[in-house]
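User: Please fill in residues for this 97-position structure.
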């Protein structure tokens, strides 16, 4: 995991994992998704929180491009934001309606 200044105003570190492997691990400008309240974005120096993301995760990369990641069969992922690092865990819960 790269050493990132937790007060950086420019980047966050994102890691996306399932039960078997790391699917994404890199520096990003922002991360977007939806939860039970609607759309949300995680930006550098975001407050610490945990949520259940639904359907997709959009990674806004440092080079200006975007990557949209499907959240798998369950369509749900646990997102943990702590000290400028975003950890996303796939396959640990199922969608409830």
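Assistant: Residues filled in for all 97 positions:
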């Amino acid at each position: 995991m790269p050493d990132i200044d937790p007060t950086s105003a420019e980047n966050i570190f994102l890691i996306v994992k399932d039960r078997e492997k790391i699917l994404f691990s890199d520096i990003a400008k922002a991360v977007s998704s939806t939860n039970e309240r609607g759309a949300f974005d995680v930006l550098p120096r975001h407050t610490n929180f945990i949520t259940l993301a639904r359907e997709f995760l959009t990674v806004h990369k440092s080079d200006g491009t975007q990557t949209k990641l499907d959240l798998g069969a369950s369509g749900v992922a646990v997102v943990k934001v702590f000290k400028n690092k975003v950890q996303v865990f796939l396959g640990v819960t199922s969608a409830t309606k």
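For context: DSSP finds no helices and seven strands in the chain.
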